[in-house]
Amino acid sequence: MRQPSATFWCDLALVSTLGYLGREKEARLAIQELHQKKPGYSLEQYARDDFVLAPAAHQVVVEGLRKAGLPERDGEDKTVENKPSIAVLPFSNLSGDPTQQYFSDGFSEEVLNGLTRIRSFRIIARNSSFALRDSSRSAPEIGRQLGTRYLVNGSLRNAGEQLRIAVQLVDSQTDSQIWSDRYDGSLEDIFDLQDQISAAVIGAIEPKVKSSEIEKTRRAVHLGAYELYLKALSLVYEMTRMSTDEALSLLNQAIQLDGDFNRALSLAAWCYTLRPTQGWLSRDSDEAGQAIEMARKALAGEPDNPEVLWQSGYAIWFFSDALHEGIDHIDRSLELNPNSAQAWVASGWARLFSGDPQTAIEHHSRAIELSPMDPIGYRPLNGIAAAFVCLGDYERAEQWSRKALALGPNYHGCYRILATSLAYLGKTDEASEVIKKYLELVPQVSIAYYRKHMPWKDTRYREINEEGLRLAGLPEVSEA
């Protein structure tokens, strides 16, 4: 058997040491880093590895790894709460029109959102479950990959105003169908159908949970506006300038049709926060006032909607000096729905820019736990890297930013954090190359742009990042 590398042994030793010291949060983060190198690594795998250690020393290491929370067996995750776990897979589009996929995806997401409001369940984040679209894997394989027991899947056919929806609930551990049903209705019935399906899934898994626990707070929404919202939602996750601009255009159209459509208002407010950090604003652009107005209107309309809370709260925090108000809304969102990976990401970035990098690491790590296969998982990865820059741990900042950049080469923050960490490590040539690639993507960015548009509330950490970018070669002003 081949002996694992010395570097991997050092990683294991760190996890074991943290376990003995009782530093649970740091141990959990170290295990995540370990699993980036060897997914699913466990004590069972450790026993098979050919480490040259005396038996007594082996036992000491194993006990530390166990205390730290390393899984006993391959594929087991000890960091996951002991709750029924559910993944909603994207519903198949049977309309015969591939352009209608956004509607099937949107319906699936609404069912997922209904389930997240039940605190006794652990819900796999949307982006991880949707990453398995069109997968040929069996239910047990999907369950193991997502770390979940129950799978909800189905199909949707919409012809004109008529809908036909087929849904089934599968136990991935036994590969057996627990429940299935078919629903027929019109487009006007869509919100009731979503609630009925959520209630049926909950009742099949845990009959003691009453269907009344599903929040039926949805107000009547203009159906044309709702369709525009679903189209925008499918574009937001692409995280490109073109897709974000198109999403904002669709959301503004939806708001024109229904000025009280709170989820469209909050999503638009959040989309506006992407533009400054991605370097997509011109020198004279100012969208802050519009975003804040949208956010406050959405909160006034739905003050207990978790999605509205975190999106609007983040926009208020980002664009104004009301940082405590913004973070309070995000915290409230997480109280109502602790399963939202994107809310944890928003909280992580808000904490970082407000001067609390340690909490930022914890919240981004929680997001990764909830959505390990997230196609936009580069956001929490880069958030952890940015936090390590603030903490002065530039080696780990480089490691995490490289992971983020590999997953999201169009996410411009990855270039900034990688260049900064390389510059502080004295790798100036590499840092300069990263800045060169960054400026090819967004030539108008400079130190002056960074200072104006990045939402730092803590000047100490802003100056650390500015100086790192300056050392890497980012110009003070741009001529673009």
Strands, helices and their partners?
Blueprint: H1 6-21, H2 24-37, H3 43-48, H4 55-68, E1 85-88, E2 92-93, H5 101-116, E3 122-123, H6 126-130, H7 139-146, E4 150-159, E5 162-171, E6 176-186, H8 190-205, H9 223-236, H10 241-257, H11 262-278, H12 288-301, H13 306-319, H14 323-336, H15 341-353, H16 357-370, H17 378-391, H18 394-407, H19 413-424, H20 428-441, H21 447-453, H22 459-472
Parallel strand pairs: 1-3, 1-4, 2-4
Antiparallel strand pairs: 4-5, 5-6
Helix pairs in contact: 1-2, 1-4, 5-8, 5-9, 9-10, 9-11, 10-11, 11-12, 11-13, 12-13, 13-14, 13-15, 14-15, 15-16, 15-17, 16-17, 17-18, 17-19, 18-19, 19-20, 19-22
Q: Report the span from N to C terminus.
A: 57 Å
State the helix count. Answer: 22
CATH class of the largest domain: Mainly Alpha
Number of domains: 4
- What does the radius of gyration come to? 23 Å
The CATH topology name of the largest domain reads: Serine Threonine Protein Phosphatase 5, Tetratricopeptide repeat
Give the integer mean of the pLDDT values: 83
Largest sheet: 6 strands, mixed
Q: Per DSSP, what share of the residues sits in E-state strands of 2 or more residues? A: 5-15%
CATH superfamily of the largest domain: Tetratricopeptide repeat domain
What is the β-strand count? 6
Name the shape in a single word. Answer: globular
SSE run: HHHHEEHEHHEEEHHHHHHHHHHHHHHH
CATH architecture type of the largest domain: Alpha Horseshoe
**Helix fraction?**
55-70%
Structural class: alpha/beta
| Uncertain runs | 76-82, 208-218
